[in-house]
Amino acid sequence: PALSLDEQADLLPYNREFEFPRDNLKLGKQLGAGAFGVVLKGEAKGIRADEPTSTVAVKMVKRTADNEVVRALVSELKIMVHLGQHLNVVNLLGAVTKNIAKRELMVIVEYCRFGNVQNFLLRNRKCFINQISLVNDRIDPAIMIQRVSENFELNRNSDNDPRSGTRAGRPGSAGYSYDRQTDTCATEATMMTTVPEDEHVMSNNSIQPAWRSNYKTDSTEAMTVTTTDLVSWAFQVARGMDYLSSKKVLHGDLAARNILLCEDNVVKICDFGLARSMYRGDNYKKSESGKLPIKWLALESLSDHVFSTYSDVWSFGIVLWELFSLAKVPYPGIDPNQELFNKLNDGYRMEKPPYANQELYEIMLECWRKNPESRPLFAELEKRFATMLGEDV
Ligand code: ADE
């Protein structure tokens, strides 16, 4: 008989080369927490070859967690070992597994200093520059260049910039980049598109599964976000997901809260592997209490608990909607219940979010096609965003 995904993950090897000495790891403040686990900031001595100490994120189970939860984190660890490294995935740096019987299990991953893009957009939506041209509905990076140059000093990227993030990070920004650290936008209200506050609350219909929620970051200063940034993030997420799917790994919980923003405008997908084991069997019924990301799930996942790369593509469409609404809660005003399923099943889909053009909205609609196999693949999505950004992949 075929093995379930969890059983497959159990059989994956854990590579001892990732074992990291507990004594070389200093734990810091909390970055996120969920029902069963926490993510802490940390300092790890000698975990990377190129620096004496590195800032890292450490994922652990809570003391009160049961065996299932420990097992889920082990399975996530194994999936990360299996995955290998990719720019647009939060990469594994090491793990502490020696005392796993005493529930000491730490998964050490790259630290992404700007936190998840959902919170990033919520914090910075007042500093949004809408680059969609009123003339032809195209994205025009010049809208930013003109406006920003009045206020910010621009740095021209050198052609041989070794940062891998430059190409993936800001293609289409006409060779310009700026430094997020110094890029504040509080000064000139006039140059920003004013975005209304909305009903976004971390309420019971905003779902916060086990590991994430309430990420805090160092920086509280406001930073500009442009339409080009959003497209660049979409491009990078498609690229990371294409990599995941090439390794036969499903995400199962793709959402803006699971996409982290790092230096150089690089975004990385996190939290794969864990979600799945939460969805299994009876746990699924917990959906009524709002523990499941109903609003991100594909029709077939809702009706038959079927998860696949195709259902990840559906969720990616919801992520696009989140990005181009600047982190609104999907299906505003609708409860995630049977009625939502019925509506979707009858062909209802969300409207175009305010900061998308028609081209972007059509991509969303394609991701939400009823027939899973007629949805676009991540490789195709990656190409389409690259084209939008004026790049060849
Ligand atoms: N919150 C959860 N994981 C994180 C990471 N890798 N970097 C920064 N914040 C996080």
TrEMBL record:
<feature type="binding site">
    <location>
        <position position="59"/>
    </location>
    <ligand>
        <name>ATP</name>
    </ligand>
</feature>
<feature type="domain" description="Protein kinase">
    <location>
        <begin position="25"/>
        <end position="389"/>
    </location>
</feature>
<protein>
    <recommendedName>
        <fullName>receptor protein-tyrosine kinase</fullName>
    </recommendedName>
</protein>
<feature type="region of interest" description="Disordered">
    <location>
        <begin position="154"/>
        <end position="179"/>
    </location>
</feature>
